[in-house]
Amino acid sequence: EELVFSGVQPTGNLHLGNYLGAISRFVTMQENYSCIYCVVDLHAITVPQDPRLLKDQIREVTAAFIAAGIDPKKNIVFNQSQVPQHAELAWVFNCVARMGWLSRMTQFKEKAGKDRENASVGLFAYPTLMAADILVYRATHVPVGDDQKQHLELSRDIAQKFNNDWAEMIAELGHGAEYFPQPEPLIQGPATRIMSLRDGTKKMSKSDPSDYSRINLTDNADTIAQKVRKAKTDPEPLPGALEGLEGRPEADNLVGIFAALRDMPRQSVLDEFGGAQFSTFKGALVDLAVETLAPIAGEMRRLTADPGHIDAILADGAGRAEAIASKTMNDVRDILGFVRRP
Ligand code: TYM
């Protein structure tokens, strides 16, 4: 059975990269799959969070999901901390994953920086919680941006090692050859890695100190126009063919964003704008970005004005998620050999 799972951290500043690389893809997936979309608040606290802002940030991601077009009745939408089985399975996976595996994670190395002694243990174990998010539902497909690829590979390794280490019990209990599936990353389309508007070699990120580096989902039309106009470019006009974008990361990024917003191949963008100056192209890009994002921002404002309604959606989703997750955890207890409540 095919099941989609993905998550977004409620760490503020949801941006165009999150939308094009992930959330817009979540919307597409709901047509053909059962989907579970999670606001991963337990992941957010691996780095310091202001508790007075976190609730609103959780509601904002939820609102973004719904405003983008995810139907919370057809799918399951909830926040991670309401379903305790995520943390429970993550503990088991902490005992499956190896220190060496986690030490190789580039995101940990980047986020911990030089002062690794001072990074939280949670930041180090981040990927085992992510594996638990996916596997507690035995999800098979995970739509994510390119930056999550290594974490998904680790999830596959954890599933495989669990299946191997407990193969006898898994078979004995009638689960067949493997209990957990190998979740497949879906990293597709023209927008798997949107770059900073200030530096085409850096990923667009929620934590970049410069707000001009990203287009936030809540930016108004004027702000979007200003950010695009100020976006770094080079002096050459746009090329007519993709080869002409080589060595021009900023031009490449803006063409990629345009292609993703229009849902067309990058070459088609060059067919239309090859030879044009950036001032012309940026004008068209502003119109396109505003056309896509303004309705989402408006709907997010409407939804977040009623936190009670959002909290009810999250509670309903958490109840349905827990029904699946608790079944998995009971299986896991039996596989591991724990004594459990009958
Ligand atoms: P997060 O919250 O950093 O980002 C959410 C999603 O947005 C994608 N993304 C991007 N895509 C394209 N260009 C960018 N510049 C860009 N920046 C972010 C991310 O790849 C992601 O898909 N670890 C995850 C959250 C998570 C998760 C999970 C995901 C926790 N558990 C289980 C999938 C399955 C993260 O930090 O995403």
Automatic annotation (TrEMBL):
Uppermost EC category: ligase
Residue window of motif 'KMSKS' region: 203-207
Entry keyword Membrane: no
One BP annotation, GO: tryptophanyl-tRNA aminoacylation
UniProt short sequence motif 'HIGH' region, positions renumbered to this chain: 10-18
Alphabetically ordered keywords of this record: Aminoacyl-tRNA synthetase, ATP-binding, Cytoplasm, Ligase, Nucleotide-binding, Protein biosynthesis
Catalytic reactions on record: tRNA(Trp) + L-tryptophan + ATP = L-tryptophyl-tRNA(Trp) + AMP + diphosphate + H(+)
Cell location: Cytoplasm
Amino acids binding L-tryptophan: D133
Stored InterPro entries: aa-tRNA-synth_I_CS, aa-tRNA-synth_Ic, Rossmann-like_a/b/a_fold, Trp-tRNA-ligase, Trp-tRNA-ligase_bac-type, Trp-tRNA_synthetase
Alphabetical list of Pfam families matching this protein: tRNA-synt_1b
Entry's Gene Ontology molecular function annotations: ATP binding; tryptophan-tRNA ligase activity
This enzyme's EC code(s): 6.1.1.2
Domain of life: Bacteria
Family stated for the protein in its record: Belongs to the class-I aminoacyl-tRNA synthetase family.
Subunit structure, as described in the record: Homodimer.
HAMAP family linked to this entry: Trp_tRNA_synth_B
Task performed by this protein: Catalyzes the attachment of tryptophan to tRNA(Trp).
NCBIfam families reported in the protein's UniProt record: trpS (TIGR00233)
UniProt protein name: Tryptophan--tRNA ligase
